[in-house]
Amino acid sequence: MSIKILLADDHQIMRDGLRALLEQQAGITVVAEANTGRLALQLAQEIRPDVVIMDISMPELNGIDATRQFTAILPAIKVLILSMHADRGFVTGAFQAGAAGFLLKDCTTEELIRAVHTVVAHQIYLSPSLLAPRQLERRDLQQSQQLIRMRLRLLTLPMMVAIVVSLSGAGCLP
C-alpha cells in the first residue's frame, strides 16, 4: 500500500524538489500540492492523504493554524512540519497544534523518508538536530522535553520505550 502525501509549501521550487525526492521512494506517492494552508485543507478533505508535509510560513493560513484545523477536522491525517524555523516557539506551537512530527528544511532525504514512515506508524518524529544544544537553549530543550513527555502519554508502551531510548541516547533526558 502506497503512502499518499500532500505537499503544502508556498514555494513552487520546494514542492517540485520534494515531489522529485519522494516519488523516487517505493511506496510513496505525492497526490496533491498546495501553496496555501487553506488550499491544503481543501485538498485534504477531497483526497484524504495519509501525510501532509507542511511548511509553517504560508499565505492565507500558516502551517501551525492549518495543522490545528487538520487535527480537528481530519484527525487520521498525520501532519509533518518541514520548516526552516528551529526556535522553540515554532516547535512547541506545531506540537500543541497536533503535528505528528517536526523536521528542518536542511534535513537529508533519508531523514525526511524516516520521518514520513515514523508518523505513518503513529509515532512522533522530532528531528534529532532540534535536540542538539546548539539549536535550543537549555530551558527550551527542557520545555520541548516536557511537550514530548506529554505526547508520550498517548503512545503505546513499545512506542514509548523506543522514543525514550532514542532521546536518552541523544543525551536529552536526565
Describe, in plain words, how this protein is organized in 3D.
The chain has helices at residues 12-22, 37-47, 63-73, 88-97, 109-120, 138-152, 157-169; strands at 3-8, 28-34, 51-54, 78-83, 101-104, 125-126. It is of the alpha/beta class and 174 residues long. It has one domain (3-127): Response regulator (Rossmann fold). Strands 2-1-3-4-5-6 form a six-stranded parallel beta sheet, with helices on both faces. Strand 4, helix 4 (88-97) and strand 5 (101-104) form a beta-alpha-beta unit.
**Second CATH tier, the architecture:** 3-Layer(aba) Sandwich
Euclidean distance between termini CA atoms: 40 Å
How would you spell out the order of helices and strands?
Answer: EHEHEHEHEHEHH
Q: What coarse outline follows from CA principal-axis ratios?
A: globular
Total separate domains: 1
CATH evolutionary superfamily: Response regulator
Q: Determine the fraction of residues in helical runs and give it as a percent range.
A: 40-55%
Structure classification: alpha/beta
Strand tally is: 6
Poorly predicted parts? none
User: Approximately what portion of the residues adopt beta-strand conformation?
Assistant: 15-25%
Sum this structure up briefly.
The protein is α/β, with parallel strands linked by helices. The protein is built from 7 helices and 6 strands.
SSE inventory with pairings:
Layout: E1 3-8, H1 12-22, E2 28-34, H2 37-47, E3 51-54, H3 63-73, E4 78-83, H4 88-97, E5 101-104, H5 109-120, E6 125-126, H6 138-152, H7 157-169
Parallel strand pairs: 1-2, 1-3, 3-4, 4-5, 5-6
